[in-house]
């Protein structure tokens, strides 16, 4: 459900999760670095995402992390909000 929602929102997950409870999302196509993307997603869509550099230096400036350790209803709402946010960027 999360991977579908991210794809529909136009967000890329370069490495599919394998037993994890999170996805690492490439936000470089938005023209923002990860920190700015996270700030705007929180302010404009009320979706909290940590920037990738919080989890290590690899692609930290261009990736954000989304945990899917939540209820299906919360995840669905989060995907809806992220999708609207992404649409507002175009």
Question: How would you describe this structure to a colleague?
Answer:
With about 90 residues, this protein is an alpha+beta fold. Helix content is about 40%, strand content about 10%. The chain contains 3 helices and 2 strands; from the N terminus they run αβαβα. It has a two-stranded antiparallel sheet. Helix 1 packs parallel to helix 3. The longest helix is centred in the last third of the chain and has 17 residues, at about 70-90. The radius of gyration is 12 Å and the shape is globular. The termini are far apart.
Provide a quick synopsis of the model.
The chain is an alpha+beta fold.
Layout of secondary structure:
Layout: H1 2-9, E1 22-26, H2 34-45, E2 63-67, H3 72-88
Antiparallel strand pairs: 1-2
Helix pairs in contact: 1-3
The SSE string, one letter per element, is HEHEH
What is the terminal-to-terminal distance? 24 Å
Task: Note the beta-strand portion.
Answer: 5-15%
Low-confidence stretches: none
- Gross morphology: globular
Number of helices: 3
Number of strands: 2
Strand order of the largest sheet: 1-2
Radius of gyration: 12 Å
């Amino acid at each position: 459900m999360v991977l579908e929602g991210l794809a529909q929102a136009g967000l890329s997950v370069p490495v599919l999760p394998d037993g994890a409870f999170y996805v690492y999302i490439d936000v470089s196509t938005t023209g923002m670095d990860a920190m700015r993307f996270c700030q705007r997603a929180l302010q404009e869509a009320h979706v909290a995402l940590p920037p990738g550099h919080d989890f290590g230096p690899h692609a930290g400036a261009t990736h954000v992390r989304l945990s899917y350790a939540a209820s299906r209803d919360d995840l669905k709402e989060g995907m809806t909000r992220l999708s609207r946010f992404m649409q507002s960027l175009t």
